[in-house]
Prior knowledge:
Low-confidence stretches: 1-21, 187-195
Radius of gyration: 23 Å
CATH architecture of the largest domain: 3-Layer(aba) Sandwich
Number of domains: 2
Largest sheet: 8 strands, mixed
CATH topology of the largest domain: Rossmann fold
CATH class of the largest domain: Alpha Beta
Structural class: alpha/beta
Strand content: 15-25%
Distance between the termini: 64 Å
Number of helices: 15
Amino acid sequence: MRLSILAPLAAILAVANGNPMGRRALAIHESVKAVPAGFAHAGAVSPAQEITLRIALAQNDIAGLEAKTYAVSDPANALYGQHLTRQEVPEFVKPSAETVSAVSEWLSENGITAKSISPAGDLLQISLSVSKADALLSTQFSTFTHIASGKTSIRTLAYSVPVSLQSHIQFVHPTVAFVPPLSGLPGPRAAPSTNAVPASCEDIVNPTCLQAMYGIPSAKATSSASNVIGVAGYLDEFANSVDLGLFLSNLRTDLVNSTFSLQTIDDGSNDQTLDDAGIEADLDIEYTVGIAGGVPVTFISVGDDSVDDVDGFIDIVNSILAEPSGITVLTTSYAFNEEDLPISLAVGMCNAYMQLGAVGISVLFASGDGGVSGGQPTTCTTFVPTAPGDCPFITSVGGSTGLPPQVAASLSGGGFSNFFPTPTYQAGDVAAYIASIGDQYSGLYNTSGRGLPDVAAQAENVEIAWMGSFWLVGGTSCASPIFASMIALVNDRLIAAGKPVLGFLNPFLYSPAGRGAFTDITSGNNPGCGTDGFSAKAGWDPVTGLGTPNFNLLLAAVGL
């Protein structure tokens, strides 16, 4: 087995030293040391088989966009709230004329025509035979199998590009990215408040419980098309209208007849056969429509025909940027383990989500259900952060549970990124937490990484309607749509007051005013990787972040 794994790499390195197409000097651009755990080499691929590759070009001024995004998102900055337009963002992201010319010339030399597949023109797509791809990238593509799912893919362990183009090309994909299929639907499991929270909320949490726990208003929002919650759907998970009707007629009678709209990407769909209802999709829709009453909700169904080959995580950004839809909040209940992505792809995804923040969209991701072991409980030797919640431009939502004062849900994903450094807005919090635990878990996590989650909300014993019946589910995939709904309701009040929506949340959340809107959680932990995980403590922690939100305090924090 070991020889069969190492042989393809040896072959790749041998080819990479050659130069079969043209006379350009080549250099290895990306590589992995061996076939990643969970995958197996499954043999050669026909040289005539056609594959599709995407070339991410160097972006013109991504540092400038980052600075601008922070400026318009920081309450202490004079530019706060002055979000960029969808026409302004591409000026930062588009590749330079030199980059476009250099890469186009290289492809033309090899008889290849590319098409742009992103609004800013920074992502090109080419289709070519495996033999031509091997020659172009001085590599050897092979077939690999994801052992658990049986899914096969064509990948390589290293590829090269001309030395003269290394500064112009971020990455070529899919090449060395061995990304496991998305998984992790919520399973049966099981915020500041007063004694008004019904005792029944200890065992069954519904919208009434959440209103009592977090001060969420029952009054309907008044803004319309300018404030929309986008709910990202993957894995052919369908949001069922009948289940939503059942949920509302029993648990939010004042919202009966409320519904959601549909947007499809990558050949997505939303089958309304009741037996095909998705438990995750139903949860996300019911706890947006049913919590943010009056706020329009769009279910964004991302199909299997993804252009980005990371299940549509970048495609969804490009679609939202290309087709303005009024979305001000985007919530996603799916994630990868950070270690399953090459850093180039993780950075590319993060830069894409930063663009949403720049135009005034709050991007929320569930932090994962495996504690310190990532998206789901798994065997691990070092702690596993999740992605893209590790991206500093995303608000990562962890889990809490119980009657107030709440405790950390043990499933709450949390930790520190190995890819992204600690952002300025949470530097003091991360340093304080790490100092408080001393050398505990030394070597198991990155002490200089971006910490997650940022906030927390209810993640156990959440009641939903699914396939015509009521169920209890749990996971941070409950927490993310709940918090997204609260942000949308705050946006509604801001719009009514003639103020801009919140947009990229984190600089506000970690500001003195922002953090004052959260109830600190100081007990509980998130076990994983054979450890007890991190412990919730006073202040920010990598289990529940800043704590659970209080709606009225959020309003006060934004000056309402």
